[in-house]
Design a protein that fits this description.
Structural class: mainly alpha
Radius of gyration: 43 Å
Helix content: over 70%
Largest sheet: none
Strand content: under 5%
């Protein structure tokens, strides 16, 4: 692992030294762009998740929640109309409740493509049982031919199925309410996490970009100071013919260093020629 790290560092140094000055200063910008591109993909994926959650709440959960309230009202209306039919002894009023029953079933069927299909099927089954027993009981009460025990048994059965339907509506409402709360909390947590990561990523980018620019600046500053120092020595006749400027890079400063080294070599040759001529 250590050898791989050393090898990678050497390859990176070699690549860095082969770049021009402009490209070196563009490294932090390019690295920052790549970093934010990856972070943008991360934000996009979380945004899509939040969008799906919001769509689910708006198109499934809330409309179904409202439908359950509407159906409970229709259920109570059916019970009230059946009771009125018995009071006035009108069988036609019992038939008119079919309109409300069909409307309830239509509303439930519309939402069966949601994740609550099983609960809706159970509610519809219980309601059909209730409506069948309640309608028959109302007819028996109007006819007044059934025995007291039979009527008492049927009444208890109707009351039991009615309460069962109401409980199923209540349980499903509570479940939907909890799901909505869960989705809203999830959206809030995701958005907070994205906001926190965005702030952290921005700060990290500022720090890394600053460090990168500082390193490049120090590298350029060191090479320029070498060139300036050697140029001053040449200007004052203090050339050290046994010393050459070191440079591993092949950028513009590297070319200048190589030119100065070549110039020193030529001065050394000229100096040797003069010394030889004096002898």
């Amino acid at each position: 692992m250590k050898n791989k790290s050393i090898s990678f560092f050497k390859q990176f140094t070699k690549y860095y030294n082969s770049l021009s000055i402009l490209k070196k200063f563009l490294i932090p910008s390019i690295a920052g762009f790549m970093f934010f591109l990856l972070f943008y993909i991360y934000i996009l994926s979380n945004t899509n998740y939040m969008k799906e959650s919001i769509t689910k709440v708006n198109k499934e959960s809330i409309p179904l929640y409202e439908t359950l309230f509407d159906n409970e009202f229709l259920l109570q209306k059916i019970s009230f109309e059946l009771n009125n039919a018995v009071v006035v002894k009108e069988l036609d009023l019992i038939k008119e409740t079919n309109i409300y029953a069909k409307e309830m079933q239509k509303k439930l069927t519309f939402h069966k493509d949601t994740i609550y299909k099983k609960e809706l099927d159970n509610i519809q089954k219980s309601f059909n049982e209730y409506y069948f027993e309640a309608s028959n009981l109302s007819k028996d009460l109007i006819d007044s031919t059934s025995s007291y025990d039979y009527i008492h048994f049927k009444t208890l059965l109707v009351v039991s199925t009615y309460k069962k339907v109401l409980n199923q509506y209540q349980n499903l409402r509570d479940k939907i309410k909890n799901e909505i709360k869960k989705d809203v909390n999830s959206i809030y947590e995701t958005s907070s996490w994205v906001l926190f990561n965005s702030s952290f990523a921005f700060i990290l980018w500022i720090i890394l970009s600053s460090l990168g620019l500082f390193f490049i600046y120090k590298d350029m500053s060191y090479k320029i100071s070498q060139i300036v120092e050697e140029s001053e020595n040449i200007a004052h006749g203090k050339v050290n013919f046994h010393k050459r400027l070191s440079s591993d890079s092949i950028d513009e400063l590297g070319l200048i260093v190589n030119s100065i080294n070549t110039f020193i070599s030529k001065l050394e040759e000229s100096h040797k020629d003069l010394e030889y001529a004096k002898e």
